[in-house]
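Handout, page 2. Input:
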Amino acid sequence: MKFDTVIIGGGLAGMTCGIRLAEAGQRCAIVSQGQSAIHFSSGSFDLLGSLPDGTPVADPVAGIAELEKIAPSHPYSRIGAECCARYAQEVPELLRGAGIRVAGDSRRNHFRITPMGKAKRTWLTIDGYLTAEEADRLPFKKVCIVNVEGFLDFYPEFIAEEFRKLGIECRFGSFNHPDLEQIRKNPSEMRSANIARVFDREANLEALAEELRRLAPESDALILPALIGLVRNDSLEFLRSRVGHPIYLLPTLPPSIPGIRAQQALQHRFRALGGEYFLGDSVVSAETEGSRVARIFTANHGNIPFEAKHFVLATGSFFSKGLQATPDRIVEPVFGADTEFAPTRSEWYTLRFFDRQAYQAFGVKTDSSLRVLKEGQVLENLYCAGAGLAGFHPVQEGCGAGVSLFSALHVAENISGN
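Output:
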């Protein structure tokens, strides 16, 4: 099978790169072994929340310009502040073009409310999820926090505790439906995706709206866990119109409805552009000719190779096995690419869980065009995008989604020559 570009990995970076290349007229394939980290998404896309020294960032674009001075190995610095500023304008349109409605400003972080009720800096948030312009101010004074009876991955009491610190009066409500009884028989089945399937049915969503109308009086707004809209695009609008009251969603613990929806939307957009998506397949080996990758072989296709002019490594980090740790080194398992890591294992981590962990910045070595290095030499047609890149701390710096999106666009730009 021959393509212009083959992308290994179907997460945020792989899908974004594939969409941009397909928009440019390339024939692309994505090989994805399964669910990506998008399924754990909070409904937001971070750009830059903090500098490496912990300084909070209000203006992400200005923060990236500062990164060039203090962290030259950061992916943003390799891409360049000017390119990053341009990509920050392109990404919202790319997401909206895939049907993911987002709001936010790359020149000013806003705050999204986490599943525990705390405010966290972010860049773009999917419409309908609770956000605020200031960390200590929410758009209501009295709120009703509503949960499904028996749903354990949402914590109204913790949320109320944080809201009360802001002077917000909180009360609680719950709702149930006969169609939930089947999945309630097994507590492990009471997960957000299974519940959302129940309320994708019009009659059940109407019943939920009726219950919310009962709970709405004496509150400025209703807060619901993200348990609607797995298939339907209009579930929240439907509830708001029927209830006639402000309704906001909060993400739950994984699996994530906004994440699943985003993954499905990106995949649909890629296929609509003519891309070929091979789900449930994994790369088992690769062949190079000189300084170029010639072909890869996958588990499902046996001795039938994927051949392409360009290849993109978007397999992610340790979570998705894009990087693997041995007792003394970090390995990239597909191509044997060079990796950046501390030479002594005791330097990889600290025993304090919330400390800045060194291993999070380990990853694949690349040149300034994000082409992969192997044995110190550039593989001319192999690029790396996303969480597998070295040089950044996605959690502490609040930049994981931004690095995936911007590196994907940068790689696509280099491949297409634009």
